Amino acid sequence: MKKFIQTIKDIWSIDELKTKILLTLGLMAVYRFMAQVTLPGIDPQQLTVLGDKTSDGLLGLLSAFTGGAFSRASIMALGIMPYISASIVVQLMGIAVPYLQKLQKDGESGRNKINQITRWLTIGITIVQGGAYLTSLPSLGIPAEAYLLGQGGMFWISSMILLTAGTVFAMWLGERITEKGIGNGISLLIMIGIIARFPAAFMQEFTSKYAAGSGGFMMILLEIIVWLLIILASILLVTAVRKIAVQYARRTVVGSIDDAQGARQYIPLKLNSAGVMPIIFAQAIMFVPGLIARNSDGTVQTIFNALSDFNGWGYNILFCVLIIVFSYFYTAITIPTNKMAEDLKKSGGFIPGVRPGVETSEKLDSILSKITLPGSIFLALLAVFPAIVVHFGVQQNWAMFYGGTSLIIMVGVAIDTIQQINSYLLNRHYDGLMKTGTKRRGTI
């Protein structure tokens, strides 16, 4: 504990790092404050039913990503999700659209243009999703008397403007955090929204265990132990890599031998190269059975109702299959093994026993395919684990923290942020957060 406290003191002794952390915390606080502001014209006292209907299932997940703003009919109800959707669309279009491919190769100017395209697409997606959200509010339980000024054109126009402005503002906050704060701003906004629900979810579980007389303290303790083990498994999944040994030929530089080029190095291939994207893609597809069930009847409705049950076996088996499929798909489009092989060849490197060029590309692709299978299965199991613990009596809101998108996002963002803080500490000759907290000797 003393070493940890010393590390915290070292962090606050670096003025630049302290400023970045305070700025990040301040912008996240602004985001959380804005998430509490209800759309004008809606009585916040009438939103109890909306909160109940969006407390679990897929709507519960959307509410979690927005920190509960979705279930409060807030001006930040759509949160940062339209920006995430736009980023995914632009990334996928970059595979097939030559113009975007050219921009990707244009360096900083190309990235700026891609960011601008993403922002405009975000506004378009927000308008579509905002209209769908406002249309669905009555069906989600908001009574007619909750609309203080009616549901006419003025309410729609003002609400659409505010929902769009809320998403654009969230996007701006995320970009400012990334640029001037610490960590990835967009991911931090999602994480802070998820964490915002943690205290209420835990207290609900704590109360239910004591009120029902179903184990009390011992059951809570067991659940916490299992939760910590799942966090450990998530960390292993996020950080696990397969190291591919690479040898660089020695080269003569200014009459001498460049020993650094003769050293053995590694290409790290992640066990889960796709991150959380397969779960997001799979969940988007899993909205379809529910839509089909609402517009059908008889046997078809029964089948698709089963496939839209968040805690049902049919839903989770199909969910697992889709995650595995999308893991391969997203890994294939984001890890260019042919470009890696070409860059390795240009730099004079090679994998021992493998010819540079095409054979190296095939070797990397083969290894990546083999490690993606256990990685995708592990990811799928983590994704459906919340549904598993629900069958053992865990409350739905608390079960959300036992895996799935929420936990993997929190673990990934936490690791990324800690690594950035560590880089500042190590540059100033301090040990990082994951090591002892003493100063290192030496001068800068």
Automatic annotation (TrEMBL):
One of its GO terms (cellular component) is plasma membrane. InterPro entries: SecY, SecY/SEC61-alpha, SecY_CS, SecY_dom_sf. It is found in: Cell membrane; Membrane. PROSITE patterns: SECY_1, SECY_2. GO terms for biological process: intracellular protein transmembrane transport; protein targeting; protein transport by the Sec complex. It holds the Pfam family SecY. The keyword Cell membrane applies. Its main location: membrane. The chain crosses the membrane at residues 21-42, 80-100, 120-142, 154-174, 186-204, 216-241, 274-293, 313-335, 371-393, 399-418. Gene3D superfamilies: SecY subunit domain (1.10.3370.10). It comes from the Bacteria. It is a multi-pass membrane protein. The keyword Transmembrane helix applies. Keywords: Cell membrane, Membrane, Protein transport, Translocation, Transmembrane, Transmembrane helix, Transport. Belongs to the SecY/SEC61-alpha family. Component of the Sec protein translocase complex. Heterotrimer consisting of SecY, SecE and SecG subunits. The heterotrimers can form oligomers, although 1 heterotrimer is thought to be able to translocate proteins. Interacts with the ribosome. Interacts with SecDF, and other proteins may be involved. Interacts with SecA. The central subunit of the protein translocation channel SecYEG. Consists of two halves formed by TMs 1-5 and 6-10. These two domains form a lateral gate at the front which open onto the bilayer between TMs 2 and 7, and are clamped together by SecE at the back. The channel is closed by both a pore ring composed of hydrophobic SecY resides and a short helix (helix 2A) on the extracellular side of the membrane which forms a plug. The plug probably moves laterally to allow the channel to open. The ring and the pore may move independently. This is Protein translocase subunit SecY. It comes from Wenyingzhuangia fucanilytica. The lineage of its organism: Bacteria, Pseudomonadati, Bacteroidota, Flavobacteriia, Flavobacteriales. The gene is secY.
